[in-house]
Design a protein that fits this description.
InterPro entries: Cyclic_Pdiesterase (IPR009097), Usb1 (IPR027521). One of its GO terms (cellular component) is nucleus. Keywords: Hydrolase, Lyase, Nuclease, Nucleus. It catalyses: a 3'-end uridylyl-uridine-RNA = a 3'-end 2',3'-cyclophospho-uridine-RNA + uridine; a 3'-end uridylyl-adenosine-RNA = a 3'-end 2',3'-cyclophospho-uridine-RNA + adenosine. Helix content is 30%, strand content 31%. It is α+β, with helices and mostly antiparallel strands. The chain has one domain: Cyclic Phosphodiesterase, Chain: A (Alpha-Beta Complex). The strands form two sheets. Strands 1, 3, 4, 9 and 10 form a five-stranded antiparallel β-sheet that branches. A hairpin with a 2-residue loop joins strand 9 and strand 10. Helix 1 runs antiparallel to helix 5 and helix 2 runs antiparallel to helix 3. The termini are far apart.
């Protein structure tokens, strides 16, 4: 029998689901994983500490990635063919570098969460190539494709609600100054992407770049 699943916000920091949980539906996301080095975590601590003087509820991300798809819903029996199609589409793609060094404030589509992220300033074309391949797979399964004119970024911190007004302007300028002045930033924020990952529910699939 279908079982109702309660959506207890206290279990996930007050975040609101983008869509209701339903048995047999698997939230699915395609992305480039970023493994944080110690120096990156030092930079993150400086940024979050400064940003909390404007928004005390800000929480640092625990894992880092750059999205290549929206979060979409797959039925369980679609997961295997979806991953197989992704693997075929991504098999010929090569590793590449990008630079993510521009601090930017984002909100999600329904304005229930605000993020501070590092936007990509170089490597945009290669990322669009990846998105084009991922979008082709999403279309096969009649799923929503990625945003038009995406702002590729790595999210660093988040809070509940639309608090973008507090973080933009003076706060954003101070955060950019921290990034620009951080001794290791030129090295840290030039990132070589080596694999693409797909998360579907609690399952992870990896696609190495050549």
């Amino acid at each position: 029998p279908e079982e109702a699943v309660s959506d207890d916000r206290s279990r996930h920091g007050g975040r609101v689901r983008g869509f209701p949980h339903e048995r047999g539906n698997w939230a699915t996301h395609v992305y480039l994983p970023y493994i944080a080095q110690e120096e990156f975590l030092e930079l993150l601590e400086l940024l979050v500490s400064r940003a909390r003087t404007y928004v005390p509820s800000l929480a640092a991300m625990e894992e880092f990635h750059l999205s290549l798809s929206q979060c979409v819903v797959l039925r369980y029996h679609w997961i295997e063919p979806f991953v197989r199609s992704l693997r075929e589409r991504l098999a010929a793609l090569h590793r590449f570098f990008c630079v993510a060094d521009q601090v930017k404030v984002y909100t999600n589509q329904n304005k229930t969460r605000t993020f501070i992220g590092l936007e990509v300033s170089a490597g945009h074309f290669q990322l669009l190539e990846l998105v084009s391949e991922v979008d082709a797979v999403l279309k096969e399964f009649d799923l929503p494709t990625f945003y038009k004119d995406p702002s590729f970024h790595i999210s660093l911190a988040w809070c509940v609600g639309d608090l973008s007004g507090r973080l933009e302007g003076q706060c954003l300028r101070e955060l950019q100054d921290i990034v620009d002045g951080f001794e290791e930033s030129a090295f840290l924020l030039r990132i070589q992407w080596e694999q693409i990952r797909c998360k579907s529910g609690n399952k992870y699939f990896s696609f190495p770049l050549r």
